[in-house]
Design goal:
The protein is of the alpha/beta class. The protein has helices at 9-23, 56-63, 84-89, 99-107, 151-162, 177-186, 198-204, 228-233, 235-254, 256-267, 271-281, 293-307, 315-318, 322-334, and strands spanning 42-48, 72-78, 95-96, 112-117, 125-128, 142-145, 170-173, 191-194, 208-212, 223-227. The protein folds into two domains: 9-121 and 219-334, D-Maltodextrin-Binding Protein, domain 2 (3-Layer(aba) Sandwich), CATH 3.40.190.10; 125-215, 3-Layer(aba) Sandwich (D-Maltodextrin-Binding Protein, domain 2).
Length: 335
């Protein structure tokens, strides 16, 4: 039996409060505005990272009331990715939209599962100095990513291997997309991995939008994860939560103008900027929350490389999409 030295509930709650206060941003207050739900609404807490278009359909589902009409009051708690697995295990949150830490813990034996993916392709962009005309021009250059063992660093290593950029190409650790944007503008680095909509900000200041990483890496990003106990004992709740997310996915795919309006308000963008951001990420979203076999394999490969997991990782140890499939089937029957 594997022992898990996760934080105790009282200590974890304090850490979450600190994380929320430190990270700031639109979700720092913890509660998403979604209109008045039923008086007897069940409160559901979902851990999220910093505001990101990778979980846009979940945000859309909150804003459009897809949760509240099912009797749920959704509280979004912003926290660091490393806290999501212990937060679930200590019942400090009900679900998390940050699957990476959960998947790593599950692969090591923790009773957790990733149960759907909102985005099934990477949304990250490679931006560069204007004189860099193509990816191969980065041979021997400096490329900014997060710290080693993170998804952006993995992406850069894939770039180095795929485009044969050579051993003199250097990965420069930088914590945030904004840090990489500024460093590229100043010439501290030659290129960097950023999240949308910062790629459009890069273009506005004269940088080049060089490559959409989802075109070479079909790695899912944001989704939903829960404890195995939740899946066993709250099956009906989980299915209804997944139905709301699938409705959010459908709205994101089909309701362009409404989704752009939500993006503009959420990310504080103009309508034009939000429209460009929407077109950039639309094709990265799942239709029903369930990734393809290719995408699950790509995710496992990424996990093995970034988390230092040895041996073969069984998909069944980290994924359980059975309830998402049931939710999608029930929605399809009603259409």
């Amino acid at each position: 039996m594997i022992s898990w030295p996760f934080l105790q509930p009282s200590r974890l709650s304090a850490v979450i409060v600190v994380a929320v206060a430190w990270l700031g941003g639109p979700l720092a207050t913890g509660v998403e505005s979604q209109g008045k739900g039923p008086v007897s609404a069940s409160k559901i807490t979902i851990a999220v990272a910093a505001p990101s278009l990778s979980y846009l359909p979940i945000h859309v589902a909150v804003r459009k009331g897809f949760f509240s009409r099912r009797g749920f009051e959704i509280e979004m708690i912003q926290m660091a990715a490393g806290l999501s697995a212990p937060a679930l295990l200590n019942r400090a949150v009900d679900y998390t939209a940050i699957p990476s830490g959960v998947a790593t813990a599950a692969a090591r034996g923790a009773p957790l599962k990733v149960i759907c993916f909102a985005s099934v392709k990477l949304q990250h962009l490679l931006i560069s100095r204007p004189e860099i005309m193509q990816v191969t021009d980065l041979a021997g250059k400096r490329i900014g990513a997060s710290g080693f063992g993170t998804l952006p660093a993995y992406e850069v290593q894939i770039l180095i291997d795929k485009y044969r950029l050579g051993p003199n190409t250097t990965i420069i650790p930088m914590v945030t997309s904004t840090d990489r944007l500024i460093a590229t503008q100043r010439g501290t680095i030659d290129a960097g991995i950023v999240s949308p909509p910062l790629d459009f900000k890069a273009e506005e200041i004269g940088l080049k939008r060089l490559l959409h990483m989802g075109t070479i890496l079909p790695v899912p990003q944001a989704g939903l994860a829960a404890t195995e106990e939740k899946l066993r004992n709250k099956r009906a709740e989980v299915i209804e939560i997944l139905k709301a997310i699938i409705e959010g996915l459908d709205y994101t795919w089909t309701q362009r103008d409404g989704t752009i309006e939500i993006i503009a308000r959420w990310m504080n963008l103009s309508a034009s900027q939000a429209g460009k951001a929407y077109e950039s990420v639309r094709e990265t979203f799942s239709k029903n929350g369930i990734p393809s076999e290719e995408q699950t394999k790509a995710y496992i490969s990424m996990l093995a490389a970034t988390a230092g997991l040895g041996g073969e990782i069984s998909p069944a140890s980290i994924f359980d999409f059975t309830l998402a499939a049931e939710a999608a089937k029930e929605i399809a029957v009603k259409k």
